[in-house]
Amino acid sequence: xxxxxxxxxxxxxxxxxxxPGDRVHKDECALSxxxxxxxxxxxxxxxxxxxxxxxxxxxxxxxxxxxxxxxITRTRKAKKEDDSNSGSGHPPKKKPTRLAIGIxxxxxxxxxxxxxxxxxxxxxxxxxxxxDDLATMPDVVRERVSLSMAGIMSADSVSHALQVQQWDGEVxxxxxxxxxxxxxxxxxxxxxxxxxxxxxxxxxNIWMNLTDGKMLCGRRYFDGSGGNNHALLHFQQTGYPIAVxxxxxxxxxxxxxxxxxxxxxxxxxLPEHLAHxxxxxxTMEKTERTMTELEIAVNQRVGEWEVIQESGTTLRxxxxxxxxxxxxxxxxxxxxxxxxxxFTVPDFQxxxxxNIDKIINEAPSDxxxxxxxxxxxxxxxxxxxxxSKPAPDPADENGASExxxxxxxxxxxxxxALVGRGHPEFSTNRQQDAQxxxxxxxxxxxxxxxxxxxxxxxxxxxVEERIVCQQSQKAKYTQRVDYMVQLPVQMDQATNTExxxxxxxxxEEGDTSAPTVRAQIPFAACMAALSEPxxxxxxxxxxVQSKTTATKxxxxxxxxDHLVIQIKKFTFGLDWVPKKxxxxxxxxxxxxxxxxxxxxxxPGEELLPEVAPPPLMTPDVEVKAPVLDDxxxxxxxxxxxxxxxxxxxxxxxxNTGIDAAMNWIxxxxxxxxxxxxxxxxxxxxGAGTTPTESLSEEHLATIVSMGFSRDQATKALRATSxxxxxxxxxxxxxxxxxxxxxxxxGGRSAAESEGGREAPPGPRxxxxxxxxxxxxxxxxxxxxxxxxxxxxxxxxxxxxxxFNDQKVCASEKPPKDLGYLYFYxxxxx
Length: 829
What we know:
Keywords: Hydrolase, Metal-binding, Protease, Repeat, Thiol protease, Ubl conjugation pathway, Zinc, Zinc-finger
Shape: globular
Helix content: 25-40%
GO biological process, one term: proteolysis
Number of helices: 24
EC number: 3.4.19.12
Number of strands: 29
Domain UBP-type: 173-281
């Protein structure tokens, strides 16, 4: 064997020193979840700075010829067991005092201590070089290798740079109104105690407006507690932007809210602003809970948190293949829950896990940036069982104690960074909506599976909308693609109305012992609301050439292999404040949707003619581009809706006023093009004006991958100004127009219709019986999708299993009535 010094000299030109901007992967293997703590440690290429576990480093050497690797091993130090931690899914026993993660007073994040060992390894003979060995080598070798080792050790790892463990929900920004806030000289002086709302006489949750000194109650919370919104209404009437919560004022500060900025803020001139109304900040004492304390308390509500996490029972930990936990990277539980469920679906298993060897062999030079490789890595990590092992107990050096429930698990850092890259929300460490992430990920799968099998087809289905003009009785049929059913919550159908009213009465009377009663909603009532005809009061009928009443009925044009149902728990109150409906719904284990199968045009039924509505008119001049009522648009924007959505609402309701526009917005908030630009007749960006050469190749390829020809994709994009989501909607609304055009191979796989006609051109959708069985559901705890916690339950071999980040346990009482997303698969014959 050659002398190690000579070998190092021969590869010296390949050894680099990390520079600012270099991505150093020293915490995780690019192709697996091996880390420095894993058996065999981690090998960091001293040229590309990619990390590899022991099973993949030889492969990298063979493919690249790179020989020098920086080898890192970490050994966990023994430490005293912290009695404040619980290993069975309970909330932290040590009560948090700060709405934060990973900092003093916040929610606990486990911090481990390690002993680290470093050396250089030369492949293929695995020759080792330590820092001591370098001392005897020529200066040029010693200096270059030492600098490279030191650079790798001191560099921030990619995972650290992309994912900061600390998150502080209390970090607030200075209000833009505070420095120049104008205060009225109206003689108002605020007493040091005895505050009450000047409108309703409530004595709790009182906010003082810093402009005029008005004392008014705060917002009503989702559970009926809080106030009666009088402080908010005062802002809407006066525009006075900032208020302080009385009872939270201390010499250190207070809760200050900016209604205009819709957030808790800082006021650097708070002492001066309070003194204007006779309040000496230095003598005040705290008498009410701050908004942060209230948020923490709500996020730990016993009624929801403990039930969903099954915290009242001792759960049996499970280990093995397909039973692997995922580490929470700081508000990443939404991602963990969604991916656990998706890799229960055979399509995703076959696409990514069954082909992992082929995927890895075909991976690009930097596999950390390759979608297929990182999804396959995640899938294999979840299903193989390699990481489904009990996490070592630092206080148990002999390994004799029972497993605690926590697993070693996997930390999906590279995956999260890749799928979130460039996205304004998923690239952050903030909590997100699991439903939105599911659709985001499915969209990424669609874009990355233009050739070969596409696992998202398991969820894809066609929806038929039938609109009947009540005056002419003529109908219009459109089809669109969808991936989930959004089920409305029918609060007026609660079966325990008397209990709810009694609890509300006791709260209004100030009874602090009043129990929190959860509305019991029948699942059948929610399904009925979905299937019942919707009345359209401002429908422009091409048959009668005027606005009239119509009914819209929605049905399934195809039934997918796997059906996702979202319970629409998150809504807006009368004051447009987001809230979560605290409901229990008796979601069934089996579902038969056969009665909701679309039937298409009925015998003898006439269709509405394809005639566009006339342009809007000004009092004396007809214009090609309709004039929009700016005041209505402004009112809608002030409510927080996107500008383009407001413009559409005013346009499509014909300038008929704020109420009609608001109804349009509430009925179209879930549209994929809700916030897309409005394209009006006569505008240069109107339909058909986009030249073919300017069309996005990526958009064309996406539509072609759904089973349409390139000509059809081109026509759809040109008709919608090259906006992908609108083009997809357009193409399903014009299927009859496309029948004469060529269709790509692999069109709709559904059987021929009852009338014997061939299926119209469309996406690759699967079809079958509309009978399903429940196999998974994702639950949410907290007041909104932007906070709280997600867990999922998955049925494996007739046993329900709870996946709560790194904890994987046999479920004793799966809370199927409290879910947010439900996953069904087609029932076997």
